[in-house]
């Protein structure tokens, strides 16, 4: 039996279940805070990086700025670091590097379709202010979630630690 959230959206089929509908005996009802309402859509940031490079560096937030620097993809003719920079950053949350992404709360809600960066739709975290966006970045061993106003992509020479620090402090 597929779970139904009374008054919200059915997790599997996105069919609305109006408030006040009766729940049939034996029907599973999810709590009102349903992660199925959240889903991830891929975002093309026009850059690829080495997904297995061990030197991804996360810096910030400092004065609302945060940065994630990663090594460029080996096939990329531009071998400068790829740096994702967020302004208006409200939160940064790396996942546990020892927990498989298949156990991430969004694994069955679009995460598997994301190659590099995704946007989390219907995010409670981003709903706090209408100008916030909830991004999810996939790395080899973890995901990084950032809620911020703006994401920009930069190419910066040097190592990942220096590149991330430079953009957070600029």
Describe the structure.
The protein is mainly β and 170 residues long. The protein folds into two domains: 1-34, no CATH class; 39-169, no CATH class. It is 6% helix and 31% strand. The protein has one helix and nine strands. The chain has one helix at 160-169, and strands spanning 39-43, 57-62, 65-70, 81-87, 91-94, 117-121, 133-138, 143-148, 150-156. The strands form two sheets. It has a five-stranded antiparallel beta sheet with strand order 1-6-7-8-5, with no helix packed on it. The protein has a four-stranded antiparallel beta sheet with strand order 2-3-4-9, with helices on one face. A hairpin with a 2-residue loop joins β2 and β3 (65-70). The longest helix has 10 residues, at 160-169. The model is unreliable at 1-36 (pLDDT under 50).
Task: Offer a quick outline of the entry.
The protein has one helix at about 160-170; strands spanning about 40-45, 55-60, 65-70, 80-85, 90-95, 115-120, 135-140, 145-150, 150-155.
Mean pLDDT: 79
Instruction: Give me the number of helical elements.
Output: 1
Strand order of the largest sheet: 1-6-7-8-5
Low-confidence stretches: 1-36
N-to-C order of helices and strands:
EEEEEEEEEH
Largest sheet: 5 strands, antiparallel
Summing up helix and strand content along with how strands pair, one would put the structural category as mainly beta
**Structure summary, number of beta strands:** 9
Provide the domain count: 2
β-sheet strand percentage: 25-35%
CA distance, first residue to last residue: 53 Å
Radius of gyration over C-alpha positions, nearest whole angstrom: 18 Å
């Amino acid at each position: 039996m597929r779970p139904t959230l009374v008054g919200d959206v059915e997790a599997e089929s996105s069919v609305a279940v109006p408030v006040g509908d009766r729940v049939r005996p034996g029907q599973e009802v999810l709590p009102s805070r349903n992660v199925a309402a959240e889903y991830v859509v891929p975002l093309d940031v026009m850059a690829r990086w080495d997904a297995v490079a061990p030197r991804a560096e996360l810096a910030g937030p400092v004065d609302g700025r945060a940065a994630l620097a990663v090594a460029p993809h080996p096939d990329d003719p531009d071998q400068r670091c790829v740096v994702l920079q967020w302004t208006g950053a409200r939160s940064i949350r790396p996942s546990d590097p020892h927990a498989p992404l298949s156990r991430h709360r969004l694994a069955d809600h679009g995460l598997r379709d994301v190659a590099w960066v995704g946007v989390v739709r219907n995010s409670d975290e981003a709903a706090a202010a209408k100008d916030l966006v909830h991004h999810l970045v996939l790395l080899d061993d973890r995901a990084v979630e950032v809620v911020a106003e703006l994401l920009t992509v930069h190419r910066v020479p040097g190592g990942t630690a220096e590149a991330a620090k430079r953009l957070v402090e600029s």
